[in-house]
Amino acid sequence: MAKIRQFGSVRHTGESGDGEERVVESVRQHVRDDDRAVEQNDDCEVVEDEAEAGFEDEADENGIGVQEEIVGDLRDQFGDVVQDEMDDYDGDSGDDIWNDDTIPDPLSSDDDEEELERREEVANTQGCEELLYLGKMYGCASDFKVALLRYSLKTRYDIKLYKSCAMQLGAKCSDAESKCPWRIYCSYERRRHKMQIKVYVNEHTCLRSGYSKMLKTSSIAMLFEERLRLNPKLTRTEMADEIKREYNLIVTEEQCGKAKSKLYRQRKASHEAHFSRIWDYQAEILRTNPYSTMEIETVPGAVLQSKQRFDRLYMCFAAQRETWIETCRPIIGLDGAFLKWDIKGQLLAALGRDGDNRIVPIAWAVVEVENNINWEWFVKHLKGDLGLQYGARFTIISDKQKKRDSKDPELERMLWIIAHCYTKGEYEDALEALKKYNKGAHDTLLLQNPPTWSRAFFRQGSCCNDNLNNLCESFNKTIREARKKSLLDMLEDIRRQCMVRNAKRAIIASRLKTKFTKRAHTEIELTKEKAKDCRRYLACGNFHEIDHHSVTYSVDMNLRTCGCMKWQVTGIPCIHAACVIIAKKNRFDDYVVDYYTTIKWRQTYSRGIKPVQGMKLWPRLGRIGVLPPPFRVGNRGRPSNHNRKKGLNESSSLSNKNKLSRDKRIMTCSNCREEGHNIQTCANERVENAPKRPRGRPRKEISGDLSQAQGPSQGPSQPQV
Predict the structure, then answer these.
(1) Is there a single domain that holds both residue 326 and residue 473?
(2) Which of 52, 222, 334, 409 meets the CB 3.0–4.6 Å disulfide criterion with 398?
(3) Where are the beta strands (DSSP E) in 568-693?
(4) In percent, how much of the chain has pLDDT > 90?
C-alpha cells in the first residue's frame, strides 16, 4: 500500500497517451513487486544484467523471458472485444486507474485468498484447467505471462505471445500451417483493477513439435533459480536433460549455459552491490539504534588502499541486549545455521527466553565457517555486551548434534528418564537400570557427559529446565527464507522480524489480564491440581515433610527449597511446595519468581528495535567497499570417493592375494642410484645411467669376423709387387 500511495501522485508532462502509459506502467511495475510471494528489499539498488551478445531471446521487463511480438492493434487477432475495450480507454484515465481511494484493502480476506492462489500458480501446483480459463483474474501482466508459460510447459504446445500495450496481451498457437484455432486474450479490467482473460478458445488442432517459443533463456533461468542455488554444480547438459524429462521439451545446451551464466552474474552483481554498501549500513544501524553493536571484520587487500575482503560480522541491538539483562532468565541458547546463498557461510545466534518461554534474539553473527575460532570470537563479543564476566551466574545451552545409534524405543524411554531426573539419587537409579538393560548403551551414554544435560546437575537459579535447544531451532526456522537472500537483505529481514515480533508481543502482553504469562499460568494451575495427591506432615520451624506416592520430600519454606529440586531449578513451586502453600492458605503468587509475571513480560517488550530507512537514504561515508567472500562451489579436481586414507606403508594391494605388496620394499634413488632415499631428498651428485644394450639380435661385423673364422692367413694368393 505504501508504494501505491507513493506513486499515486506521479507528475508527468505532455498530452500524448504514451506519457500516460509510461506512468501507468511505472506504477504497475511497483505494484507487481509488492505482490510477489517472496518480497525483496524495496530499497535495494537494482543491478541490471549486461546485454548478452548473440542472445536471440527477448526477455521482458520482468525477466520472465517470454518472447513477445509487439503489434499495434490486436483487433485482427482477437476480434471486437479489443475494440470495445479500446473505446473505454481515454487519454486522462492513466492516473485514475491506480487511484489510492479505489484500491482494495490488502488485509482483506479476499486479497489474502487471491495472494494464496497466485503463489500456488507460481509454484506450479495447478492443472491446465485452473491455469487458464475464461474470466480468470491476475494481479498483473507478469502473472498472466507466468501462467501462460506454465500452460505451455504442461501441454507442450508451441505458443506465441502478442503484446499491444502493457494492459493488452494475447497469445496464439504458433503453428501457422495447421491454422490452429487456439487463442487467448487478457486485458485490464477497470472495475476489478486486475488483468482478466476475456477471450479463450481452448481447442488445438496442431501437433506438438517438442519445442516452445516461450521457453527462452530467462524462463529457463527462472525455472532453475532455486535448483542452481542448491546445487551450483548442475551442468547445462543436466539442465537440458531435466527439461526433457519433466516437460518433454527440447532446449539446447547453449540456452541452458546462458541461463546459468545469467543467474550467476545476477547473483554476483547483487552480492557485490550489497557488500559495497556494508559500511553505510553499519552507519545507518548505529544512527537509528544508538548504543547498539555492529562490528565488521575484513581481510586487508594485497595493495594499500585496495578493497578489503569480508571476513565476519557481529550484531547486537541495544534494545535486545537491555531486554535480556533486565527481564529475561539468565540462560542463553547458542546455535548455528547454514546460509543458503551462493556464498557459503554460517549464521551464529544467541537467544534468550522470556517469561512465556518464547525466543528473545540477543545477538547474531555471520561467519564463513562454524569452528572454535569463530565461536570463541562470537562469545567474546557476547560476553562484553551482556556483562557476563566469568559466567558465574549464567547458563549456556547448546546442541551437540549427536545422532541416535539405536531405534530401540525402550532405550529412548530410559534415556529421557535419565535426562529428566531432578535428583542425583534418581539419576543413579536410572543409570543402573540402563546398565542392566544394555551394558553397551550404558557405557556409550557415559561418554556423552550426562552431567551437562541431565536436570540433576542443572545450576539453580537459571529458572529453566529445558534439556533441548529447540528454541534456537525454532529461530532458525523463522529465518529460513531470510538465509536465502544476500547479506544486507538477510540482516534486514532478521532485524525486521525482531522489530515486528517485539511490537506484536507488546500488544499481546498489554491485553493479558492474569498475573502470570499464559504458559506459566497453565503450569501453576496444573501444579495446584497435582498437589492434591500429596500428604503433609508438620515439623518444627517452617519445615514440612511431604509424602507423594510413598516417597517423602523435605520442604523448607524459608529458603524456598524442596528435596525434589524442581522448585530450585524452575522457579515455580513444585507439587510438594504447593501442598504446603495451599494447606497454609498462603498466596501461591508470592512464591513464583518474577520472571514469569505479566509485568515483567510487558517490560520485556516495552522497548524495541527502531525502524531503519532504505538503502537509498543511508548515509554515504565514501569508504572503500568490501569484496564478498569468494564463491565456494566445491573443491577443485576429481570428487573424493570418501575412502579411508591409507597409512604410511599401507597399500591398497594388501587385500589382493594375487599381487605382491609394496610393504618392506627398499627405496632406490633415481639420481645417485643409492638405496634408502629418493630423488626429492637426495644431496649426492647425479650418476649417469649405464648405456643400455640395443634391443634385438646384435649385428655381426662381416669383414673382421669372417677373417677370424677362417683361421690364420696362409699368405697371399698372388705375388706382391
Answers:
(1) yes
(2) 334
(3) 626-627
(4) 30
